[in-house]
Amino acid sequence: MKVLAIESSCDETATAVVEDGRVVLSSVIASQVEEHKLYGGVVPEIASRRHAEAISKITAQALLDAGCTMDDIDAIAVTAAPGLIGALLVGVNFAKGLALKYDKPLVPVHHLRSHIASNYLTSLDLEPPFLALVVSGGHTHLVEVKSYTDYNIIGCTRDDAAGECMDKSARTLGLPYPGGLNLDREAKDGNPQAYKMPHPHVEGAPYDFSFSGLKTFVINTVHNCEQKGETVDVADMGASVINAVVTCLVENTEKAAKEFGYKKIVLAGGVSANSVLRARMDDCCKRNGFELFMPELKLCGDNAAMVGAQGYYEFMAGRRASLDLNARATMPINEEF
Ligand code: KG4
Ligand code: ZN
């Protein structure tokens, strides 16, 4: 079964054709990074306009690359939540137009579910149940994935996402957008113990996260140094904040896996590309005898192949949207459209 997938939740317009939830026949991404870089972050209105310009052309490209026409497509999957509302609406409306014109079933997909599904494309033998750590620009979730469409949230961030903390730290240190990626690169040779960072816990909620204190610590330290005419070592500060964020992520995942009895751990979301997180989670899993699954690097960030993978499993579970489907800026991962 072939799914045509569409993703436009943030600053990548992406389309793909995926077979049976596991095989990527094509995957096209029109990135807007260069334009948002001028502003130091994503400008939502610009994102929507660029999606509107790109979406038709890259859909044709995805079909061409897959050697398909719309006749070969069995369903259309689209990211409908969560994300930037104007950006999501471009993809949702385009998908509805295609579904209407070609009389195809329309399948709404939750963005974080699709990030988890990027692992089904990388590890063909991966099947639920497992424990997933979903770390993106806007979300940090520890989730029990009980089946392909059944989720239970064990922990989440009380304030900033891990990606937000890395992005803002990078910006404060003068690194260009996209911050997390550049911070990872610049911090490679830094000393992670150079700055004594806070180690945030959420009282009474052992699996929840809090990253706003770490972000504020970086901002305050950099500003204090500037006022005193001192320079901050970017590599050392970068390595210290990455180390602090990753320590929280790995500790909570390890605790949850032991408490809830999971031996399969899955990483997902843009921050799962972080080299320190990948290495430290690997150590943790080896130490505990857990099996670790991570998306290949090109599937960590936003793409439509992962939407096609999750869309297939949503379709198999009977999930469909009608032509009055709306986008939602926020939506819990365990809720249905
Ligand atoms: O999943 P994603 O592409 O978009 C959202 O759904 O938010 O995640 C984007 C986040 C950004 O915060 C970006 O800085 C971060 O992923 N990111 C990284 C790395 N690559 C991307 N963070 C840390 N290290 C990286 N190598
Ligand atoms: Zn994402």
Structure, described:
This protein is of the alpha/beta class and 337 residues long. The protein has two domains: 2-116 and 299-316, Nucleotidyltransferase, domain 5; 129-295, ATPase, nucleotide binding domain (Nucleotidyltransferase, domain 5), CATH 3.30.420. The chain has ten helices and ten strands. It has a five-stranded mixed β-sheet, with helices on both faces. Helix 8 packs parallel to helix 9 (275-288). It is globular. Zinc ion binds next to helix 4.
Q: Into how many domains do the coordinates divide? A: 2
β-strand number: 10
- Overall outline: globular
CATH architecture of the largest domain: 2-Layer Sandwich
Q: How confident overall, as mean pLDDT?
A: 97
* Number of helices, counting only DSSP H or I runs of 4 residues or more: 10
Please name the CATH topology of the largest domain: Nucleotidyltransferase, domain 5
Task: State the strand order across the main sheet.
Answer: 3-2-1-4-5
Helix-strand category: alpha/beta
Q: Residue ranges: pLDDT <50 for 5 or more in a row?
A: none
**Percent of sequence in beta strands:** 15-25%
CATH class of the largest domain: Alpha Beta
Helical fraction equals 40-55%
Bound small molecules, deduplicated:
5'-O-[(R)-(carboxyoxy)(hydroxy)phosphoryl]adenosine, zinc ion
CATH superfamily of the largest domain: ATPase, nucleotide binding domain
Strand count, sense and barrel status of the largest sheet are: 5 strands, mixed
Distance between the termini: 22 Å
